[in-house]
Specification:
The strands form 5 sheets. Strands 6-3-8-15-9-10 form a 6-stranded mixed beta sheet, covered by helices on one side. Strands 1-14-13 form a 3-stranded mixed beta sheet. The longest helix is centred in the middle third of the chain and has 21 residues, at 210-230. 48% of the residues are buried. Helix 5 (210-230) runs antiparallel to helix 8 (310-330). The chain has a single domain (2-53, 97-330), classed as Aminopeptidase. It has 8 helices and 15 strands. It has helices spanning 2-10, 28-36, 120-136, 163-177, 210-230, 267-272, 301-307, 310-330; strands spanning 77-78, 83-84, 99-104, 114-115, 118-119, 141-144, 153-154, 182-189, 199-203, 237-242, 247-249, 252-254, 264-265, 281-282, 290-297. It is 31% helix and 17% strand. The structure holds zinc ion (ZN). The site of zinc ion has 7 residues, from loops. Zinc ion (ZN) binds at residues 12, 46, 105-106, 112, 120, 187.
Length: 334
Amino acid sequence: MRARLVVLLTLIALGCAACGAPSRTTPLVSAVTATVAATSRLIPAETFTASPTPSATPTPVASAPPAPAPVDPGALRTAPRDNYSVPALPRAAGDKTRVVVIDPGHADDEIGAAANGVVEKHSNLDMAFRVEAFLLAQGVRVVMTRRGDVRTYVGPPIAGYSATRRDLQARIDLANDINADIFVSLHSNGSASSADRGVETYWDSLRPFADANRTLASTIQRNVIGEMTNAGISVLDRGAKNDSCLRGFQGRCFPLFLLGPGRGTTGAEVLQRGGTGDQAMTSRPTAMPGALVELLFVSSPADAALLQSEDARNGLARGVARGILEYLNQAPRG
Ligand SMILES: [Zn+2]
């Protein structure tokens, strides 16, 4: 169970440094297959989305442990701040341009799910560039949390804080600092069962803007499925899903770190992770609506084949971008 907690708390691991970031001109398929050509072993990094059952259906909220008590920010130290590795500035005063943060999940040694010739961190980055291209053409400003195979945070090690936690926090901080309209994280799923497949989009119901979260996620999900259908490509629609109790551990619910409320870490947990002092900590959550899209399962041979198809990848990216645009068109400007 201890190992499960570590997996849980490290969620969407990220970041690399010397892995040779795939350039925009690098064909995805060759980049991916070059990296894992000899790998048939699934690296189930997406344990935060896979369920304990082979169906990978998230645990129903009704039977999950109760939500944790609200964190009192005034009683906790906040997580350390890091600089981030991508240049970005806030909007100029009066600039009404929509700003969308696109977050390619994982990076560096935290590669995400990998199977069937697809490495998620590379696939996510390629997909993010595709989504960005569609949005830029529509006059939307896009800020990506990484543009290469590097973690988003820049800084020396800090006792008690994992690289993954700091990386995720930096992605959130970046979105908050530039006052983005929405935060959209791109992933692909992994499961112990090769039969699990399809597209799903997560949103969080515990935030003050929960309704917007749900609208954003469902709009993206619908458009991805719609674009794939229009392209004549069949994918399973797994729907938009509430992540508020995606995982339960020791009586606590854990939503996705990127989407959920500020996450409290007890003093004992800080010490267990090698930190000094025993004061509890809390993370900084996003200040804007967000969604996390799981674009197919790399662990499904059929889905992985689609992820190595230009037509399918463009359809998925077009669907994400169209969903974002549809959401922005109906959402009030902040
Ligand atoms: Zn992922």
